[in-house]
Design goal:
The protein has 162 residues and is mostly helical. Helices cover 82% and strands 0% of the residues. It has eight helices and no strands. Helix 2 crosses helix 4 and helix 3 packs antiparallel against helix 8. It is elongated and about 55 Å long. The two termini are 23 Å apart.
Length: 162
């Protein structure tokens, strides 16, 4: 544990962490990038998951599947990169925060769920058909996804206040 504490303290002492803590503009801009990443992620995931749950059956799934997972992936990548930068400014505090650790666990679960669903949904027959009600396993994955990302969003907001 002492090694982890030393490593976290060293992260906080890096030049990028010092710049972010000491600049009037750097931290807010990185934070804005984090929010943009989250907006892209959640903004793409929610309508896709709702469609996979069976809402809007007249909307073809194929075109949504072409655009929304990629948009969510870009958002997740942006959120991760900017999140790491935000983390290094207070690494020792975040590493012991139950809310932060819970958020990271939920983000990991959401990402694994998305990867598994993407791999399984690349069945062209399922995507090209005009299914109004996807199979139960797809709906279960969409419900898990909605739960994970909305929980991560809530936990992320709480981290800033506690």
């Amino acid at each position: 544990m002492a090694l982890i504490g030393t490593w976290l303290t060293a992260l906080e002492a890096t030049a990028p962490a010092g710049l972010l803590r000491g600049s009037v503009w750097a931290y807010p801009l990185i934070n804005a990038g984090h929010i943009l990443g989250i907006a892209l992620l959640v903004g793409a995931i929610v309508p896709l998951d709702l469609r996979l749950l069976g809402l809007w059956p007249s909307v073809p799934l194929g075109p949504l599947w072409q655009v929304l997972p990629r948009t969510a992936a870009v958002g997740l990548a942006l959120a991760v990169v900017t999140g790491v930068l935000l983390f290094i400014t207070r690494a020792t505090a975040y590493a012991v925060s139950g809310l932060f650790l819970a958020k990271m666990a939920v983000v990991a679960a959401g990402a694994v769920n998305a990867l598994l669903l993407h791999r399984l949904m690349n069945d062209k027959l399922l995507l090209s058909s005009a299914i109004s009600r996807p199979p139960i396993w797809v709906r279960a994955s969409a419900l898990a996804s909605l739960s994970a990302w909305l929980t991560a969003l809530t936990l992320g907001r709480l981290v800033g206040y506690f």
